[in-house]
Amino acid sequence: MRRSVIIILLVFCAVISIGKDVVFSLENRTLKITDNDVLQSYDNIFISVDSLGRLYNNILITEAEDSDEFFIFFPGNSLVTFSLVDGSATVEFGSKFHNAATKRDDKNYVSLSFLCTLLNLNCVDTEKTMIVYDVPPKIENISKTPQGLVFYLDRPAFPEMFSYWHTTSGALVITIKPAVKGDKLELPGSQIFTGTNYVKLYMNTASWSDLSVEVSENKLIVNSRWSLGRILKKDSGAGYFLGVFENYVSGRRIILTALELDPERFDIHPVLANGRIPSGESLLSMAKRYDAFAVINGGYFDPSSFYPIGLLIEDGKLISLPSLERPLFFQTEDGKMGIGRLDTLLFLSIGNVTLQVKGVNTPYRGSVVVYTREFSGKLPYHEDYVYAFLDGETISSIGYKEQIEGNESVILFSPAAMEKIEKLEPGMKVKFTFFNSFNEKLKFAIEGGPLIISRGKPVTEYEKSFYSSSLLDIRAPRTLIGITKSGTLMFMIIDGYQMKSYGLTFKEMVEFFTDKNFEYLMCVDGGKSSALVFKGEVFSSPSSGVPVVPVGIVISQK
Question: What 3 state SS string does 89-147 have?
Fold first, then answer.
């Protein structure tokens, strides 16, 4: 008896710990066995007799009175006697197997390798799971979704069947194992390879990374939160994910930095360089001045003068009027984010006269031009123009002076505009009215372009009519802002002008981003201006050092 106890203790000592999960994927039944129902030794896995009873509801299990033996009868097979004294299993007619049984905490366990031999089952060993099957599951169909792929199997699916990796060229290889290929299985744009117990899907132009998998009955659903390429670097936290990706477009390598945000957790607002116009400031300086979570460059500007080009609204205040009917990234006062085109008009009223304002903080002439308190340059002098300085909404003085002082603003009236005004003198009230086709007050707006995706679809050739060929057709660094179909915001930098990243043309951007789950996507200024500062560091690779720009887009945590 003492010898029996010693042998049992030795068997117990061979069992190291609670082991891997075991998944049974059989033609007519499936079961996942976990936790205390699985034990693992250095060379074997054991599953509890209780779980075996759940898997095969027609087997018969009995235990000897002295608890040193138990018996299992498998229909279609022989009676098997398991000894807890030496851990052996004896099949009817005399075949004996060692290391086939053990006991722990009054629970009997059977060796998985013995069961596979006895029942003619096969095993696939993964990092965390052992998959057991009789006949490999059949993949009957594959379909694409905006987020990834769906594999349809002939039986319930398990996530442990799925694995993936990327080739050195960035292509994606997905393996489903165990599995066999259905007779008519195909997926356009990919190649399917098979082995004895696996199916591999090779996607030549795939750009998915950080894949996740979930199951729903017979469906294995593969999602790609980031469908932008092979991930090189990443950071994540509450409400954000930052990734640096490698991909190939038209056979050329690109490096793309993308920051995805939950708009409920972050404030977005454009800011002027040094708080004034015209002026230039590095993105690193902006990030430090605002203690920003992240900063990207804003819209287009004149590089010789740092005057912004296009509509700019900062904290509800109009800074610059639109120029060329290009798209906007904007937010309404009630928090809605949008990308698209808006018609905008600014009027001023003096007495009974209403005039359209043709320019705000601009170096160009117009019949009526306004300069706000943010304007820090020398006011342009135009002979025969009338200069009306305002204190709030009241005209404080009339006549030219070079600089705006304090909180005042100034209106320049051309001779043609003055012909429409009966009189103009200090003390008169001026009222400004700003209209936009969205019919909502805007918290901010920044003009850019070209538009890439609108209402979930790629733009047409008509979009090209708003831009020069040099902006469209040259492979250049790009800064893009997008709204995904799930409602998150995406800020992206595509490095360019470098051997390690060539940049993209307009056509290549449209083709590349068509299937990337965007509802709206647009460019802002690119080229040497493109850069992303994240947590105080330049996270992209600008072609000419940290850009100095007149407008940045500051991202702050709420």
Answer: EEECCCCEECCCEEEECCEEEEEHHHHHHHHCCEEEECCCEEEEECCCCEEEEEEECCC
The single residue listed with the structure tokens 């990337």 is: 516
Contact 404, 371 (CB under 8 A): yes
Please tell me if the domain spanning 2-132 has the same topology as the one spanning 138-226. no
My answer on whether omega of the bond before 178 falls inside 30° of 0, hence cis, is yes
- Give the span between the Cα atoms of 556 and 484, in whole angstroms: 20
* Homologous superfamily, domain 2-132: Copper amine oxidase-like, N-terminal domain (3.30.457.10)
Q: Is 218 exposed, middle or buried (0-12, 13-18, 19+ CB in 10 A)?
A: middle
Number of Cβ atoms within 10 Å of the Cβ of 255: 21
Task: Report the distance separating Cα 143 and Cα 156, nearest Å.
Answer: 17
C-alpha of 155 from chain center: 32
CA distances for 39 relative to 11, 56, 84, 357, angstroms: 12, 19, 15, 79
| Identity of the residue numbered 440 | E
Angle at 418 between CA 417 and CA 421, to 5 degrees: 100
Nearest to 536 by CA among 280, 255, 289, 273: 289
- The number of residues making up the chain comes to 558
Instruction: Please give the Cα distance from 282 to 542 (Å, whole number).
Output: 12
CATH class of 138-226: mainly beta
Whole-number Å distance between alpha carbons of 408 and 37: 78
The residues spanned by each domain of the chain are: 2-132, 138-226, 260-342+441-557, 344-436
Reduced to 3 states (helix: H, G, I; strand: E, B; else coil), residue 13 is helix
Residue bearing tokens 């894949």:
211
Q: Which residues pair with 144 in a beta bridge?
A: 149
Query: Tens-of-pLDDT digits for all 558 residues of the chain?
Result: 444 443 444 444 444 556 689 999 999 889 999 888 999 887 889 999 999 989 988 888 988 777 789 999 987 767 999 999 999 999 987 789 999 999 988 899 999 999 999 999 999 998 889 999 999 999 999 998 767 899 999 999 999 999 998 787 767 899 999 999 999 899 988 899 999 999 999 986 545 667 889 999 999 999 876 668 878 888 989 999 999 988 889 889 999 999 999 999 999 999 999 999 999 999 999 999 999 999 999 999 999 999 999 999 999 999 999 988 899 999 999 999 999 999 999 999 999 999 999 999 999 999 999 999 999 999 999 999 999 999 999 999 999 999 999 999 999 999 999 999 988 999 999 999 999 998 999 999 999 999 999 999 999 999 999 999 999 999 999 999 999 988 999 999 999 999 999 999 999 999 999 988 899 999 999 999 999 999 999 999 998 999 999 999 999 999
